[in-house]
Design goal:
The protein has two domains: about 100 residues, Glutamine synthetase, N-terminal domain (Ubiquitin-like (UB roll)), CATH 3.10.20.70; about 325 residues, 2-Layer Sandwich (Creatine Kinase, Chain A, domain 2), CATH 3.30.590. Helices cover about 35% and strands about 20% of the residues. The protein has 13 helices and 16 strands. Strands 7, 8, 9, 10, 11, 12, 13, 14, 15 and 16 form a ten-stranded mixed sheet that branches. Strands 1, 2, 3, 4, 5 and 6 form a six-stranded mixed sheet that branches. A hairpin with a 5-residue loop joins strand 7 and strand 8. The longest helix has 21 residues.
Length: about 425
Amino acid sequence: MLFSESDILDFIEENDVKFIRMTFCDTFGNMKNIAIMPRELQRAISYGIPFNATGLMEAAHQSLLLKPDPSTLSVLPWRPQTGRVIRFFCNIYHMDGTPYSGDLRRNLRKAMKKCNQMGYHCEMGTRCEFYLFNLDEQGNPTHVPHDHGGYLDIAPLDQCENTRREICLSLEEMGIDPTSSCHKHGPGQNEIDFACNNPLTAADNMVHYKTVVKTIAAQNGLYASFMPKPIANENGSALKIALLIKKDGKSIFGDTMDTMQPEGRSFIAGILNRVREFTLFTNPTINSYERLELHSAPSHVNWSEENRIQLLQLRHTPGRDSSIELRCADAFCNPYLTFQLLLAAGFEGIQNQEQLTDDRNAANGTAVFQALPASLEEAWQVAAESAFVKKSLPEMIFRNYLEKTKQQLDAYQKTDDPVAFSYQQCF
């Protein structure tokens, strides 16, 4: 919803708002913020709030400006009712007022505009898993899961249901739309699903979702972890990304394989033909590759209409527009970059009229599928050599992402304790 400046100022006064969080994300999708007082909001809207970008953004050793996006106003429901706290996602500018080319939200918005100019409407949704762990007597996280429940269990086996309930209610209060939640396969493992929305809103919701989960878990005396593989020999945690593409009001993926439009087949082919090149962005940590291939996590470049454990699944659901779902990503990806690359790959497939061939169909018992990168090092090498990724992202983001990932790889190679390294990085 778009609020005018006067609407926002009235809302602040009527709801006893005392703090305003100016929110943005760094290169790897980690949420950052500056809190301002209400009297500073007019200045923020008109001129922006300066911050030192050193170490956070590609723009090293310089200041940038944050300007609030009025459509993203949301109250933080877990904060006190008196002296309330609201947040905005922000657009980023140089100090002279020109747009900053590393603004993740602006770049995704450009990708959405290109999609619309081609005659398509795009929506995205997420299903994101996480684990809940107990705390020790000092309040520090342990590696002991909160329960021993399994897939779709109920209480008393599922001891996470009250925390999931509070998370979902908090999300609803913030205007974020969860559709369902459940206990997953691992002990203490949970999943919350979200309705499809425009890609920018879906990305905003994803980054804030992680903050909500961790906050509500802490209030319940628990620790929430999005680590891709926190427990050996148990299911890892994934971020599954749904894509709905419409043309003339109808899904290009049809109601069945037989009714799928040629554009739908080409869109899928575009993703499959390039997914290895952007795996570095969907799976950006050492630990990410501990999850892939194990316990139904995908490991090869293939698609399926019925088999839900493959890389890309067609979703023909009664009562809903047909969509596709990418299953390799995890919650440590930057959703703005990941969504941008997914759209670029799919629409390049349409532009090139690429073919969805049966040799990548999981139902083909004789097919030999190309493997996804098996390590962060391999994913880095493939991305560094990718002409597609290089042209799809601003040069400064592409260069900075590679540089910082290389630093992670170098640190990992020097560590004496690889397991401890992964936990320190992701847990």
